[in-house]
Amino acid sequence: MNLSRRMFLHTGLMTGAALAVSPKVFAEPVLPGWHVGYANAPAEGFAPGPMKLVRGKAPAGLTGTLYRNGPAHFKHGDSYATHWFDGDGMVQRIAIGEGKAVHSGKFIDTQKRRLEMKANKFLAPGFGTKGDPSYPVGSSDDVNPGNISVMMSGGELLALWEAGSPYRIDPVTLETKGLKIWRNDLKGMPFLAHPMREPDGRVWSLAMNGSRVGIFNINPDGSTKDFGLVDIGAAHYIHDWTMTERKLVILCQPWIQTKNIPPFIDGFVWKPDEGMKFLIIDKDDLKKTRWAQGPARSFYHTGAAWEESDGTIRLDAAFYPEPILGTGGGADEIRGKYAGDTVTSKLTMTVIPTSGDVKMTETNIAGDFPQVDPRRHGLSRKLTAMVTGSVEGQPGGSALAVQNWSSGKAQIFDFGADYMVEENLFVPKGSGAAETDSWLIGTAINTKLGRSEVHVFDAAHVTDGPVAVWQADYAWPLGFHGTWAGA
Ligand SMILES: [Fe+2]
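# fe (ii) ion complex -> structure
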């Protein structure tokens, strides 16, 4: 942990004073303020409670619910989770309307959580967890923490993992209602945590299974329209992907699984000589495919893509020069330590020509969690929002950036050293509103106060700062992704 000298002295003084009073207090570690983002949430969750408007005023017409998901349990007794991605999933719900914001949160009721809470220890194998041999594993859903994202489908709220089924969640009470089975013959099929939604409401998603990838095509009412298979040649690590109006695009980074035993991330090997391969699939005929070759990059998240009239595909993503959050990812942060990032990503525009190699152009925006206007998913657009900024000695981002691809310029608002900023979502101000005529809504942790906040920006004026900030009396752990359900 990169403690400043002042903090080191403060810590020493505090522990010295405590020693004179109580050896027990001396033994307690002094955790940095940002650690609230990696601490256990209350087992009973967060009952619905009002958040306080602490800046600006509630935007007129902003009515709906922000749902977010992320790991929220990292410690049983004296044992810590060995990877950030393996914490039990918790859905946060922030209902906004009539100028008010109300927060609630609830753990997803999984087999993993039930057995581990009963035993008060980690048992299940996982992404970065070896697991206890006694733990019963009949299918991937037996270890499924449901902790990456959420989506609305046919009126249902689904909590998503990437190697198992979605969980059906009551959108009001957040009670878990069971696993989502898309179709009887697809029972237990993995469903990626980054589904792609067409502007008309249809959803595409992937089922990762080594080198064979299933492709879901879901109707707006939640029924399954179709399911197909493609072969990507090797078991690449695929967390996210993208699409245009007519094509699906699978980015095959050279982080390739060579053994399939827990902890699973240990089986992935970085092979930069292979570069990144792009599989482009015709939406109307999954057998019509072509490959394109690009330089080696690692990534977790794309923004979105579109296709020019000549067939050239453009897509933006947060690309890293090599993998991050591999073996032991986040394990230090869970213990309140932070050694700093050795690798940073850049928001990058990628051009896939109709023939020849892929070209990549980096911006100078470092960060992750790119997001676009949901009405422009797969279509040409100007804007990409992204978490950026950094604070020495503290994980996560401190700022929100909105890149304008037309002007080549970005608007950035940095909250400063007391914040960890999370993903921001575009919420159009109306169905006919321009892309820039949107709100950006997201969460952050005020690390100085130890409180979570909800921020609303005007997408056209990000540098002015949030137009409204609601603050809870407490912090909930950092999450990964969310969705906005308008009223
Ligand atoms: Fe993700």
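# post-check
The chain has a mean pLDDT of 93.
The chain has two domains: 1-30, 31-486.
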